[in-house]
Design brief:
Blueprint (H helix, E strand, L loop, with lengths): L2 H21 L5 H12 L9 H10 L4 H17 L3 H17 L3 H11 L19 H26 L12 H20 L10 H31 L5 H31 L15 H34 L9 H24 L23 H14 L10 H7 L3 H9 L15 H16 L57 H27 L4 H10 L15 E3 L5 E3 L1
Antiparallel strand pairs: 1-2
Amino acid sequence: MSQSKIKKALGLVKDRTSIGLAKVGMATITTDLEVAIVKATRHSSSPPDERHIREIITLTSYSRFHVGSAVSAIAKRIGKTRNWTVALKCLILVHRLLAEGDPSYEQEFTYATRRGTRLLNLSDFRDVSHSDSWDFSAFVRTYALYLDQRLESRMKARDDSLPPKPFRELGTDKVFARIQSLQHILERFLATRPTGYAKQSRLIIISLYPVVQESFAVYNEITEMMSILIDRFTNLEVPQCVNVYETFSRVGKRLDELDSYYDWSKSVGIARSFEYPVIERVTPRKLQIMDDFICDKSASFARRAQKIAEQETQSVLEIKALPAPGDDQEKKFAEEEEKIADEQAEVREETVLPEAPKMEKVPDLLDLTGDFTAEENGDRLALALFSGEASSAPAAPLAEAINSAADWELALVESTSNLAAKKAELGGGFDVLMLDGLYDGHLANAASGQAASAGSASSMVMIPPQPGLLALPAPPSGDGSSSGTGIGSISSDPFAASTMVAPPPYVQMSDMEKKQVFMVQEQQMWNQYAKDGMQGQLALTQLQYNPYSTPGLVPGSYMGVQPSLYGGYMQS
């Protein structure tokens, strides 16, 4: 008996033993599943019996539990066998169940593979029963990888909860992801092409029929994705164009291999010739056109980016100097200034400000702009003040003289020079009683302890009155009422205009020196008061009215200079 016959006999014994073990116990659906799976995956070289495959699909179409039992039985069968025929029949059964069985088969096969069950991960499978089994074992491994990739792609599509859309409505990123997944499936399919002795195996050719049928749909979908990318190619960015170029390069190589695979499949009788699609290859000319377009677009983008960068740099770094003003520019500037002035005038017209109260013009009684000179009238003024002789000035009342004469001081002196020959007059005229009131007011102020000068900066130093000097009363107030005896016809201060002008610096310095002297005197008086024991108000009063009791203190003098009644100092 030959060795091949011995192997067949041993295979039949193993199958009968497996069927007998499955029938031990109570007859249940699970038992029927296990028996049907063993019969569908026998050691014979003939393809699986269609009856048993249909029986398995029927038994698992009503219960999820039965689906799990079938998956466990198939995984147990693959895990124990070392025969490529049994392993290939188990993969054929898995493929039929995924295509025609309950949808829950996808999840059950996925969970079994993730748990580490030896089902679709047959990367270490090898049949060592004879020397020429290497080609068959290689086909079993590649077929298992194809099923695993196909299952993973279908589970990923199911996990995406998005509603199905036409391919044309997908975004560019979705198109890239989909065509990449299709490339993986196409690569797994191309790897299932048998080699060596496997090309002549009838079982392998029969197992490739559903695989080739699925490759038609994969190719059509890839073609549609490529057409979408071509339509969008001119509107894509440079990186996306590069991605499209690389995708077309890889797909072009795979399409060349697919065309060769289909030629072999047609030669061995897998499917009918008219069922095969016409492969549209990616020619080098197409790739060159895409490459040229990418280069031109990249160069254009680089030039545009450089131009934008130069414009930004020029706008930031370069400062344009204003041109020299010419005739046109001067005219333009003048028009702009006139426009601004008109706008300001309109604003001022719209803004109504309250009217300021009108100030009465103060008469300038010291009108020195006339023809009066000291050389012409000096002698007459001196005689009027000191000689007491009659003046040649006309005898007119003082008020009329002030209102009419150009020099009011000359009129005042001339009027006072003839007091002895005048009688008291009423009605506003300047009389003797008024002049006596001037002197009486000064004496009353001196008797009350008020200083005739500008005032003391000290609260204690009292300057005694200086007899023999003429003191005029205080000027009338602004409302027209006189604060003392004076000229009743004058209604305002004649020196009001001069009060708005600051005094000269030497006058300010003189006043400061005077105030410093007063402060020194006050400090000395307080020291004397403290030295006497601070004997109450009486001692302080005596000290105020007897300032000569302080040794070395001369009131109102500082370094031989006495204060004048008119705010200055006189040399003693």
